[in-house]
Design brief:
about 20% helix; alpha/beta; binds inosinic acid; binds magnesium ion; six-stranded mixed sheet; about 190 residues
Length: about 190
């Protein structure tokens, strides 16, 4: 136990390399709207929220608490193969779902859709498992780098400029997932 002196820590949330893009208030009111819409759309269905780890865990936690329906949750973890900095679209399943989705109405919950390569491959994989329906909810939609232009995002929180963003589950080399807002990293080389 330490006595007397406390270690001074620099604030992570007011870090000078961050510029807030969507505030905590912006996020909570938007997520509430999505919850209302999803509650209406899935009334009477057998809803499973499938969260893609790790980035979507914060969005999932908020979204599930504003969907006023009987539902279950499950998790998947995938790694995208990258060719240098570019996503190749090949994905490896690191953690699969715990339960079958046969006959269920699946809503995949993602943090951000960028090129769309990872998600379209994931939707192909899930598409062969006999679900009644599969739709996609992404907290952010970053349309500019999209390669899979045919990918339909059924629900999204905000459209995101073509900049590297962090917070609300999104990371830069593992850092910043705990920010309660979305921020642009001003100098990515300083992460
Ligand atoms: P893609 O759609 O296959 O290009 O990959 C999307 C994934 O890349 C997301 O699930 C995030 O993990 C990551 N990603 C894309 N853009 C950003 C960003 O601006 N900040 C943090 N992660 C990002
Ligand atoms: Mg992700």
């Amino acid at each position: 136990m330490t006595t007397g002196t406390t270690q001074s820590a620099e604030s992570e949330f007011t870090n000078s390399n961050l510029e807030v893009l969507f505030s905590e208030d912006d996020i909570s009111s938007r997520v509430r709207e999505l919850g209302t819409q999803i509650t209406a759309d899935y009334a009477g269905k057998d809803l499973v929220l499938v969260s893609v780890l790790k980035g979507s865990c914060v969005f999932l936690a908020d979204l599930m608490r504003v969907i006023d329906l009987k539902l279950t949750i499950d998790f998947m973890s995938v790694s995208s193969y990258k060719d240098g900095m570019k996503s190749t679209g090949d994905v490896e399943i690191l953690k699969d779902l715990s339960n079958s989705i046969r006959g269920k109405d699946v809503l995949v919950v993602e943090d951000i859709i960028d090129t769309g390569l990872t998600l379209s491959r994931l939707l192909d994989i899930l598409g062969s498992r006999g679900a009644n329906s599969i739709k996609l909810a992404s907290f952010l939609d970053k349309p500019e780098p999209r390669i899979k232009t045919e990918l339909a995002i059924d629900y999204f929180g905000f459209e995101c400029p073509n900049k590297f963003v962090v917070g609300y589950g999104l990371d830069a080399a593992g850092r910043y997932r705990n920010l309660p807002f979305i921020a642009v990293v001003k100098d990515p080389s300083a992460v």
